């Protein structure tokens, strides 16, 4: 008598077990791929936002002192520490003296004066606050050093809470001999440095982020430290 051909219960159970293991492995791999893709999107978005913000800040800063005869550091360009912008548009902070000492006066806001449109003296600024970077739009003022008396409106270049404390935007200003865009010609001017942390880590322990740096030479601001 011939035995019937086919699958036994044991062989079916073994096959089911192998299939289940393979499916679980594929699901785990899919989860990892989705997580890595999402993480890459977040990282690239952050780096793009930082790059765009620093480029915009650099372009705005290049106008410092424009059409202001005898524009000077500490009067037509000032750097503030502990600066903050209130909901009703008041800018608070402590003004530092810009000198030639390295690495420069370090703060979290820079205010400058210019007459870009021919409508008279206007103050503009950059403010690093709450893990973001805000462009303070031009507003009438008597001098950059009179920042507290102006009515400010801000546009966020980097949204607040985007950067952690280690990535936060850093600013410094120093009297220097330089020329915009690294040209060999140099003149007495003010050198402003802006930097912000990127998504890339600078150390193997992944505790310190690499920073993107923008150095902006401002020949429109002289080194005289006379304060009106």
From TrEMBL:
The chain crosses the membrane at residues 7-30. Keywords: Membrane, Transmembrane, Transmembrane helix. The keyword Membrane applies. InterPro entries: N_methyl_site. It holds the Pfam family N_methyl. This is Uncharacterized protein. The lineage of its organism: Bacteria, Pseudomonadati, Pseudomonadota, Gammaproteobacteria, Pseudomonadales.
